[in-house]
Amino acid sequence: MTTPAPTPQMMAQTHGSFELVVSPLLLALLGLWLDRSVFGTAPVLTIVFAILGLVGALIKIFYTYRLKMAEHAGAGVWNGPARAAATEAQSTQAQSTEAGNA
């Protein structure tokens, strides 16, 4: 049995795990280099940069997740043409009610 070849969509969905590892690691290495060669401080910049990398990766993953869920909810069958027509009818009715009250 052969496994299917990875599609671009599958590859795009797996990048979050790499970001959680690579971003803090690269920034920690940058902080380590700065600590040792430039400033002479102990692991201060290493820790700070690693935390910033982790927080940045988590924020990006969170907002990417929210965007994907909004796209998924917008493409659902419950948001089809019938739903759009009902929403438009409700807004038209609300506007006519406001005009009558004014």
Write the layout of secondary structure elements.
Layout (H helix, E strand, L loop, with lengths): L7 H6 L1 H25 L4 H31 L6 H21 L1
Helix pairs in contact: 2-3
Describe it for me?
This protein is an all-alpha fold. The chain has one domain. It has 4 helices and no strands. It has helices at 8-13, 15-39, 44-74, 81-101. The longest helix is centred in the middle third of the chain and has 31 residues, at 44-74. It is elongated, with a radius of gyration of 25 Å.
**What percentage of residues falls in helices of 4 or more residues?**
over 70%
- Number of separate structural domains: 1
Give the helix/strand class: mainly alpha
Count, helices: 4
- Number of beta strands: 0
Please describe the biggest sheet, giving its number of strands, its sense, and whether it closes into a barrel. none
Terminal Cα separation, in Å?
Answer: 71 Å
Tell me the Rg in angstroms: 25 Å
Order of helices and strands: HHHH
Average the pLDDT over all residues and give the rounded result: 79
Dominant shape: elongated
> Which blocks of ≥5 consecutive residues have pLDDT under 50?
none
Beta-strand content estimate? under 5%
